[in-house]
Design brief:
The chain is built from 6 helices and 14 strands. By secondary structure, it is of the alpha/beta class. The protein is globular. The structure holds ribose-5-phosphate. Ribose-5-phosphate (R5P) binds next to helix 2 and helix 4.
Length: 241
C-alpha cells in the first residue's frame, strides 16, 4: 500500500465523522486534499455542508470538487476541521506548515469545535522537531526577527539553523497572507509548549507551526490498519480500528 493510499484511508475515516449541515474547516496539503476530494464526492451525492478553506490551493480544490464555501468573516465557529500535519506527538501536539499554510490553518482550527488530524503513521513521533519548524514572519526587519528567534530558542535550551524558505522561483516563499517563512532546523523540541509561548512573544513573528492542544483526535493509517488517538478531559488515548 502506497503512502498516498494510506493518506486517503485516513481521510476516508475522518469523513465518517461528517454529518449533514456541518460547517467544516478544510485543511491544506496532500492528505487534506484527499479529504476534500472524498467530501466533494459526498456533496455531489447530496450531502449538505459548507467549508472554510485554509489556503488558496485548498479553495481552488474545493471549488473544483463542488463544495460550497464560506469564510470566517461570515461564520464565527465551525464544527470540525480536518487537516494533515508534518509531525504528531503522543500528546496530540503538532508541527504544521510544511506547505506554508500554518497561519490560516491555526485560525481555522482554533475556530472549530474539533480538529481531526489525518496522516499516515510515519508522522507520529516521540518528540517534535525532526521536521523543520515553520515560523511565519513579517518581511520587515528580517535580521532582527531572526535574532529574536535565536534568543527565544536559546532561552528554551535549543538551537539550530534558521533558513528563510525559498519559493520555486528562488525568491523568498510568500504565504497566502503575504508573509515569509523561516524553517527552524532544531532536531528535537523537548518542551514544545514553552517554545510555542516564547515564539509568540516576538513582534515580527506572525505565527508558528506548533499546534499545542488544538487537535482533538488523529487518524493514523498504516499497512496494519487505522489507529485513532483521541483527547478527552486532557488525556490522549489510542484505539485501533
Ligand atoms: O502548510 C501545510 C500544512 O500544515 C500541511 O497540512 C502539512 O504540511 C502536512 O501536509 P501533507 O499532508 O502533504 O504531508
Amino acid at each position: 500500500m502506497s503512502p498516498d493510499d494510506l493518506k486517503r484511508q485516513a481521510a476516508a475515516t475522518a469523513l465518517e465523522q461528517v454529518r449533514d449541515g456541518m460547517k467544516l474547516g478544510l485543511g491544506t496539503g496532500s492528505t487534506a486534499k484527499h479529504f476534500v476530494e472524498l467530501l466533494g464526492a459526498k456533496v455531489r451525492a447530496g450531502l449538505n455542508v459548507i467549508g472554510v478553506p485554509t489556503s488558496e490551493v485548498t479553495r481552488a480544490d474545493a471549488e473544483r470538487c463542488g463544495i460550497p464555501l464560506t469564510t470566517l468573516d461570515e461564520v464565527d465557529r465551525l464544527d470540525i476541521t480536518v487537516d494533515g500535519a508534518d509531525e504528531i506527538d503522543g500528546a496530540l501536539n503538532l508541527v504544521k506548515g510544511g506547505g506554508g499554510a500554518l497561519l490560516r490553518e491555526k485560525i481555522v482550527a482554533a475556530a472549530s469545535d474539533r480538529m481531526i488530524v489525518i496522516a499516515d503513521d510515519s508522522k507520529l513521533v516521540e518528540t517534535l522537531g525532526r521536521f523543520p519548524l515553520p515560523i511565519e514572519i513579517i518581511p520587515f526587519g528580517l535580521a532582527a526577527t531572526r535574532h529574536a528567534i535565536e534568543q527565544a530558542m536559546a532561552s528554551c535550551g535549543i538551537s539550530g539553523e534558521l533558513k528563510l524558505r525559498s519559493g520555486k522561483d528562488g525568491h523568498a516563499f510568500v504565504t497566502d497572507g503575504g508573509h515569509w517563512i523561516i524553517d527552524a532546523h532544531l532536531g528535537r523540541i523537548p518542551d514544545a509548549t514553552r517554545l510555542a509561548a516564547t515564539l509568540s512573544f516576538i513582534p515580527g513573528v506572525v505565527e508558528h507551526g506548533l499546534f499545542i492542544g488544538l487537535a482533538s483526535s488523529a487518524v493514523l493509517a498504516s499497512p496494519q490498519g487505522i489507529r485513532i488517538m483521541e483527547r478527552s478531559s486532557g488525556r490522549v488515548s489510542g484505539e485501533s480500528k
